UniProtKB/TrEMBL annotation:
This is EamA domain-containing protein. It is found in: Membrane. GO terms for cellular component: membrane. The keyword Transmembrane applies. The chain crosses the membrane at residues 7-26, 38-60, 72-91, 97-118, 130-147, 159-177, 198-217, 223-243, 255-273, 279-295. Residues 14-141, 159-294 form the EamA domain.
Amino acid sequence: MPRPLSTAAWLPAAAFVLIWSTGFIVGKAIVPLADTSLFLLGRFAVAGLMFVGWSLAARAAWPPLREAPRHLLAGALMQGLYLCAGYGAIAQGLPPAIMALLGALQPLLTALLAIPLLKELPSRRTWQGLALGALGVALVVAPAMQAGLDGAARPLSPWIVLLGVLAIVSITMGTLLQKTAIATCDLRASSAWQSLGALLVAAAMVAVQAAGAPLHWHGAPALWAGLAWAAVGLSGAGTWLLVSLVRRGQAANAAALMFLAPPLAALQAWLLFGERLSGVQALGMAVAGAGVWLCQTRGRMRHAEAR
């Protein structure tokens, strides 16, 4: 029989999923109000200042400067390149549903790469959960994906799809880096460095875009509210919870929680924007939930050396 996690163990996972799923809503809301790279620059800057203030107030131990590049790289991959490439792909015409479907590959890729890099070998139960999770996400985004392809003004460029794939590879590698030497550093101080790494990527994107065309920023209340939530909620609490889960458990099992983000985002879009929620999507939510449950219960991971 599977051993379910205790309520206390589920709370951080549930909080992470609820917070992470709002990223789809924030992304949709800010597109007409600001250039995404400029928005991300502000998001990472606010999050970085928050973590610096928290670290100083708590007198957290900072890593030696010689180790700073590792933290910068982790943040650049896990947040900076992931979000800049993902938002950039959508801005260039990649339907958000396809981006969400590509995102469903991230837990699978994490599980595969964790075998040679972290010596973590998923159990059969975990592989079954990962497969169910990916199938559930595919069912949830299928209607929107079909609508996006049917309504596309031009055929989808493979380069745009590759940009979306780059985003997924980036967050996967950034997630795996959290299990390496930087895992011994205080998470608050590490998060401050990682926010700076993400900020540097966004700053480079802003510089490139500003050289080609003027950037727009319409300071509407909705934009400022979205920026506050994206910085404090997503880059702050959401990323902190994800890294905590990765550090305490197994990379693939923590990543599997992301399967629940698209279903919850579809539910939020139905509640907030009145978007249609079909029976197929409801089935996909149930399937994704079953997959995550499998990943979070008994037989989650074992070390490759044990075989």
